Amino acid sequence: MTTLTGIPTATTRPTAKVVWYIALALILIGGGAAILYRLMGGLGTTYLTSVMPWGAWVAFYIYFVGLSAGAFLLSSLIYVFGMVRFEKVGKMALLTALVSMIVALAFIGLDLGRVDRAFTAMLRFNWMSPLAWEVRFYAVYIALLAAELWLAVRGREQDHRWLRILGTIGIPIAIFGVHGGTGTIFAVVKARGVWFGPMFPIVFILSALVSGTALLTLFYVVRQVARRLLVDKALVLDLGKLLAGFLMVDMGLFFYEMLVPMLSLNPHEQEVIHTMMSGRFAWSFWIVQVGLAFVGPAIILLSSLRRSWQWVTVAAAAVVIGIVGVRFNIVVPALIPPLLPGLPAGDYAPNLIEWASSAGLIALGLLIFSLGAEVLPLDENGGTTHG
Amino acid sequence: MSEATSKHEPHWVMVIDLQKCLGCDTCTVACKAENRTPPGVSYNVVLETEIGQYPNTRKANLPRPCMQCDNPACAGVCPVGATTKGPGGIVTIDQSRCIGCRYCITACPYGARSFDFGESYTEMKGYNQVQAPEQGVERSERKKNAAPIGTVRKCTFCYHRLNRGEEPACVETCIGDARWFGDLNDPNSVVSRLAASPRAFRLKEELGTKPNVIYLK
Q: A152: domain CATH number?
């Protein structure tokens, strides 16, 4: 087999591939057992309480919605705005967006107190509730992603117009519907000052772009290296530039997100920020969020290290891990300070069941992605030159 | 405003005189006994705090049932419309519809909502009974993995008791007579007159939720 770039394809070393799938299978077995245990035992198997109603699964849910929206928006740069230099990752971006969204829905499904009533969310509607709108946006968005991915891998010349049309429709759906909307779920909650306000939907959109771009960079490099194909250095450096731009804006917004509550003199909001910066999980704020998601990658992407594709990949990997911290710090600290003096403060850390099931769902996503990447012609230059 | 025009529709409010509250927690216990709430689910709690700096301190007790807000933040965010304003202005949860997403718990500014994780007291007589007036179910058996387990629960102003002409359990049992219950649409009711007291205030009024629990300072 030869790719269009003329590089002979040594398919993945068989041993590496076997190890990869065995590792995924093992995580899936462990995670599957945890999920089964949770489904039979209810939410009492988690460390969630009425004071801390949301935890790891909600954090992972917004994490994966963000990855999906970000990956999709990157694909629209190619299919809508014609930025051909990113074309090599176009189909992979669509597959990433689709798989991430499936994983996101699996997380939020697992989080429901009554999983058996999940479809009630589709049948009953409360127009006031951002979550009710989100459920519908997710459904439309998944259908759109599937259609776009199908058109893109089919790669016919006449489909390009449709790809552009679907991509164009998808942009507002992804920005305002899917990820801005997910931010709105938090933004309308007046009871939790740090969530409340129009800032959150915008922060969510930016962090989606950051995490989605980083994940695609990482996936691209890992796939090329695993298959012993040449890494397109210019492409990775370009993705690095894009990531740097998104990251700068996101960091700016993050600064205001911290500054305004601190200066607000609102005791509840100040306590949330205090919890985040010096509480039990301050390490997740300083090391994971500030270090891995923001400052570390910013140093790489703004210094001369940005000219090395290896370093750009390191920055991308740091962002992909760091944004998990960002998501946890959105969900958890805001729920900790008591709503009224005398009510108990929240105390939460995910337990083994929550971690194992989360690992299982992430492994499931990686498995679907890996199988998809093997079956679908993601790397062929669909339509334009290929006959 | 619909509640002000209709004579037939009551507008239930609760008035709690904080000067009379001893902090004895009888209301909490009576509520547990009445509603058979499982561990971790308390419709009513008394928030006990110490105010001031030694030696000038005092203990403050704040009983906290559900505020039955006129603009309930919890109802607004519910994706399936399981929380609604019911008869008399009581905020009710349809336990046969709630999907257990717990969005309402994060949205309630008063911490008045609990999730039913499925635990049960075993040492209490009648522990396996459930009081879910929203579904018209009274004292039915609490079955494993069946609603209200896995859903969100909260105070209903003892709606089932109101229906048979009784006061909520916390009002009836308050040993200091700190609580009143009545119809705000009746201008002659005790609660209507107390609501006009200069001592009257509501919790977090600035949020615009319009609570129907009125405190007297």
A: 1.20.1630.10
CA distance B70 to B15: 15
CA distance B16 to chain A (A): 17
Q: Categorize the per-residue pLDDT at A12 as very low, low, confident or very high, splitting at 50, 70 and 90.
A: low
Establish if A50 belongs to a structural domain: yes
pLDDT over 80 (residue A8):
no
Nearest to A188 among B64, B77, B111 (CB): B77
Whether residue A346 lies inside any domain: the answer is no
Domain contains A126: yes
Q: Could you tell me which chain B residue has the CA closest to the CA of A189?
A: B107
pTM: 0.93
CA–centroid distance for A204 within its chain: 10
Contact call for residues B190 and B180 (beta carbons, < 8 A): yes
Question: In whole angstroms, how large is the CA radius of gyration of chain B?
Answer: 17
User: In chain B, positions 21-50, which contact chain A (CB-CB < 8 Å)?
Assistant: 40-41, 45, 47-49
Give me the domain span that covers residue A305: 19-340+352-375
Q: Which of the pair, A16 or B31, is modelled with greater confidence?
A: B31
- Architecture of the CATH domain B2-216: 2-Layer Sandwich (3.30)
The more confidently predicted of residues A92 and A11 is: A92
The pLDDT tens digits for B111-140 are 999 999 998 888 777 767 777 666 666 777
A–B interface: beta-carbon pairs under 8 A: 139
Query: What is the domain count for chain A?
Result: 1
Q: Is B78 within 8 Å of A129 when comparing Cβ atoms?
A: yes
d(CA A377, CA A372): 9
Is the pLDDT at A289 greater than 80? The verdict is yes
The span from the CA of B179 to the CA of B21, in Å, is: 9
pLDDT over 70 at A185, yes or no: yes
Q: Two tokens at A96? A: 């990433």
- Chain B closest CA to A111's CA: distance in Å? 7
Question: Cβ separation of A189 and B203 shorter than 8 Å?
Answer: no
Chain A positions touching B97 (Cβ under 8 A) are 117, 120, 124
Binning pLDDT at 50, 70 and 90, where does residue A6 land? Answer: very low
Contact B195, B15 (CB under 8 A): yes
pLDDT exceeds 90 at position B181 = yes
Assess if residue A382 is contained within a domain.
no
Q: Across the interface, do B147 and A114 touch by the CB < 8 Å criterion?
A: yes
ipTM: 0.92
Cβ-based contacts of A131 with chain B (< 8 Å)? 77, 79, 101, 103
The answer, for B76 touching chain A at a CB cutoff of 8 Å, is yes
Q: Does A331 touch chain B (CB under 8 A)?
A: no
DSSP per-residue letters across B78-139: -TT--EEE-GGG-EEE-TTT-----HHHHH-TT---EE--S---SSSTTTTEEEEGGGTEEE
Residues of A within 8 A of B108 (CB-CB) are: 191, 339
pLDDT in tens, A40-84: 999 999 999 999 999 999 999 999 999 999 999 999 999 999 998
> What residues 108-147 of chain B have any CB closer than 8 A to a CB of chain A?
108-111, 113-119, 145, 147
